[in-house]
Amino acid sequence: MGNENLDQKHPQNKKDRATLDGLLKVQLDPSDRNLVELARLIIRYRNFPGARDIQKDLQIVLNTWQLTEEELYAKTRVIHAAGMVYRRTATGEQQDWT
Q: Second label for 19, Cα 20 to 30 Å away, from 11, 13, 27, 81?
């Protein structure tokens, strides 16, 4: 009784929601960056006690792109092996993986 209100809000929720909203707009042919971002967010929110809207939308993106998590991870391993996804930007920013 009352446990349903124990959901937490992830500290990166606002930033991740903006990223996820962008991914939801990609219908066909996601870029390497899109694939890596999706995998990163799935890992971040796996077993997280809350953010159910984000978890639901992550599954929607996987379904839209017609991928299983295993297929996504196989693709992102190849992308990461090339080492070019999270290069520093012109402003010197680097993607955060926390």
A: 81
Beta partners for residue 50, in sequence order: 8
Question: How far apart are the C-alpha atoms of 49 and 77, rounded to whole Å?
Answer: 27
Residue 31 lies in a domain: yes
Residue 20: other Cβ atoms inside 10 A: 19
Asked if 45 and 51 count as a contact pair (C-beta separation under 8 A), the reply is yes
Give me the tens of pLDDT residue by residue for the chain, a chain 98 residues long. Answer: 444 557 888 899 999 999 999 999 999 899 999 999 999 999 999 999 999 999 999 999 999 999 999 999 999 999 989 886 766 544 444 444 44
Tell me the Ramachandran region of residue 64: left when phi exceeds 0, alpha when psi lies from -120 to 50, beta otherwise. alpha
This prediction's pTM? 0.80
CA atoms in the 13 A half-sphere facing the CB of 70: 0
- Considering the domain boundaries, does residue 24 fall inside one? yes
Split into its structural domains, the chain has a count of 1
